[in-house]
Design a protein that fits this description.
Blueprint: E1 2-8, E2 13-20, E3 26-35, E4 43-48, E5 52-56, H1 62-74, E6 89-94, E7 105-106, H2 109-117, H3 126-139, E8 145-149, H4 159-162, H5 169-174, H6 183-197, E9 205-211, E10 215-221, E11 224-228, H7 250-258, H8 263-272, H9 275-280, H10 286-294, H11 298-322, E12 327-331, H12 332-337, H13 339-346, H14 358-362, E13 368-369, E14 378-381, H15 386-398
Parallel strand pairs: 1-6, 6-8, 9-12, 12-14
Antiparallel strand pairs: 1-2, 2-3, 3-4, 4-5, 7-8, 9-10, 10-11, 13-14
Helix pairs in contact: 1-3, 10-11, 11-13
The structure holds adenosine monophosphate (AMP).
Adenosine monophosphate binds at residues 212-213, 241, 285-287, 290, 332-334, 337-338.
């Protein structure tokens, strides 16, 4: 069966078409992105195995953009299927499912209503996700559509780990609690890690570090998330590309009272002007920050140091949470590619059981174990594949699986 995976943002649609095979295999037939939807200069970049098609397009809205995706998939130089009817199911990446979705769900009007009800918790993300779902359902009304939620994997976290120490009514009446994100990535690498360790997931304890432009770390006990660093929104926890991560909330009062900032300015400061970018003054992109540090930038060096130090603190904390850890997993653009960041993060953690092998750590790509032979805890690098995970969930649910 063919599954189209869709990730709809406010001005973009990313998509991948998978051919699903026996045993959960998922082969990419084509993938692409429509960018600058509703703005000047819209473009589609579509790639299939044999060709790439990059074109300026007119995409005033998501509905039109979806029609362009279907056209690229079915016609032209990089077509992957002969007709729209060859798509058997559509999987939608959804950011916030709050407490309503502990698992992926077949989309119907009730599910759409529930995603709508989560909008106050994710005002920037859920509305475009919904627009994408409606646009895709209008074009493909006869196939199953499945919602896969970034928050779902973390619904196993218990109250002592997800509640903030603020008046309890704010949780019961307004849903203010930690939800966690990147769940599809943490779930994917957890499954691959258990397979690499040759252990049943239900008997595997892991710390999974997703280090991309957004960063989060999760404690996984027996295949289930028990704590994670992102909170009610994707701002808490680790240092990220442009986001501050953990901060004393009183800094916000100070910014407002003393510097006269309003709420929107503080929001912009912490979400878009902080993290690696704010610290280094160079970039939100770790590669550029590393380059600047190597060229002598003191602030870029400091940004890297703070990034790794915060990460190390969370690894220590989650080691305590789990009691026994089988493996630490690095994933995401930084986690998969930067031996330097992995090395700095693990330095000094030997007594806790994390012993890197310098040569293995520096070696090539793919899923691999970079711990020293004698390391009590394995250290794994696993390229994440959220799209394949979404495709698998979609195929399973579309064919009536639980
Ligand atoms: P992602 O959001 O998962 O695509 O990850 C993006 C982040 O990965 C950016 O900060 C990139 O700079 C970073 N990244 C990608 N390759 C490398 C690399 N070789 N070394 C350090 N950071 C990298």
């Amino acid at each position: 069966m063919n599954v189209l995976v869709v990730n709809c943002g406010s001005s973009s649609i990313k998509y991948s078409l998978f051919a699903m095979g026996e045993g959960g295999s998922a082969d990419v037939l084509a993938s692409g992105i429509v960018e600058r939807i509703g703005e000047a200069g819209s473009r589609i970049r579509h790639e299939a195995a044999h060709a790439t098609d990059v074109r300026d397009v007119t995409a005033p809205d998501h509905q039109t953009a979806f029609a362009l995706v279907v056209e690229a998939l079915t016609r032209g130089p990089a077509a992957a299927i002969s007709e729209l009817a060859r798509i058997d199911a559509v999987g939608h990446r959804c950011v916030h499912g709050a407490e309503r979705f502990a698992e992926s769900a077949l989309v119907d009007e009730e599910v759409i209503g529930a995603i709508e009800a989560c909008v106050p918790l994710a005002p920037l993300h859920n509305p475009p996700n919904l627009i994408g779902i409606r646009a895709a359902m209008a074009l493909m009304p006869d196939v199953p559509h499945v919602g896969v939620f970034d928050t779902a994997f973390h619904q196993t976290i218990r109250p002592h780990a997800f509640l903030y120490a603020i008046p309890y009514d704010l949780y019961t009446e307004h849903g203010i609690r930690r939800y966690g994100f990147h769940g599809t990535s943490h779930r994917y690498v957890s499954q691959v890690a258990a397979a690499m360790l040759d252990r049943p997931p239900a008997e595997t304890n892991l710390i999974t570090a997703h280090l991309g432009n957004g960063c989060s770390i999760t404690a996984v006990r027996g295949g289930a998330s028990v704590d994670t660093s992102l909170g009610m929104t994707p701002l808490e926890g680790l240092v990220m590309g442009t986001r501050s991560g953990d901060i004393d909330p009183a800094v916000i009062f100070h910014l407002m009272r003393t510097l006269g900032m309003n709420v929107d300015q503080v929001d912009d400061l912490l979400n878009r002007r902080s993290g690696l970018l704010g610290l280094s003054g160079v970039s939100n992109d770790m590669r550029e920050v590393i380059r600047a540090a190597e060229a002598g930038s003191r602030r870029a060096r400091l940004a890297i140091e703070i990034f790794c130090y915060r990460l190390k603190k969370y690894i220590g904390a989650y080691t305590a949470v789990l009691g026994r850890v089988d493996a630490l997993v690095f994933t995401g653009g930084i986690g998969e590619n930067s031996a330097d960041i992995r090395g700095r993060t693990c330095a000094g953690l030997q007594r806790l059981g994390y012993v890197l092998d310098a040569d293995r750590n520096a070696a090539a790509h793919g899923s691999r174990d970079v711990a020293a032979a004698e390391s009590p805890i394995r250290i794994l690098v696993i390229p994440t594949d959220e799209e394949a995970m979404i495709a698998r969930d979609t195929a399973r649910i579309a064919t009536g699986g639980a």
